[in-house]
Write a structure and sequence with these properties.
single chain, mainly alpha, two-stranded antiparallel sheet, 6 strands, 56% helix
Amino acid sequence: MDRFAVGSDYAGHLTDADLGLLASVAADSGPAVDASSLRSDPVALLRLLEHPGAFRTVLGDTVLGDTVLGGPGEPVPASPFLVFAVSVQRAAAELESAGHVPERMGPRQRVPLFDAPALRDFLAAPARRLFLAELLASFTRVASGRYRARVGGRMRTRRFSELDPVRLAGLLEAVPQAERPGVYRRLGDVTLFLTGVFPDYATAHALGPVNAARLLRAAQLPASQQDRVTGPPGIEFWEHLGARWYRAARDLAPVATARITVVGEVADRFRQARRVLNHVTDQYLFPSGNPWFAPPGA
């Protein structure tokens, strides 16, 4: 996706208040910008999102009028999407000079990994930065419900939740073929979200062998390869599943759009995407007591 297309997609998510905040960034660094004009100038909008002042304005201690933004306990007049967008952009800027990035090895346990160049390469594409911002924003509200499926020759009611990969995978047996790419995409999303934002939860709540086998089948992993990834479902288990689900969404999509191409790119770089989200979570989302996410099951 080119910068115009990416900027247009950002504009579709941002509120008028968001545009006002971004326009204030331009006012601080150059000629004033009319907030309403940013929707019709996606390239300028993307430049402002990438500006270091955007993060400070949304999550720093910048004063706008009589309001101090981002102070302890202070509400931020920005949409969740803008918060996540500038956080991902800030991560890209910070990782430009990082020599190593901590990796979680367990609760309160971190070890340095010298893979910052791979994370920088992932974030170099504006479309992949947009992908992560959209992913985070999509989980500020989680869909759940019931559906009917045939089990053992009888119709039964089942429940699903977007934060429960096992139950969500059950939808694959109930939806028409045309809807399966969307289910696979959301399975990839929830796996990336849980391992990126709540990795300790993803590994601490181990799956039993039956549910693990169900997820491996849902990921279309041949039986001859399943023994390679069975065992306690650690981060590598989830990374493998998430990448396969994204690839299934890409391969089954009826049209190869620019957006589905990005899904395929994330599938091939799933670990880098997960590590970037770990960095965003540790550095920007949780330390300030963010209001956007509650731990799964809370």
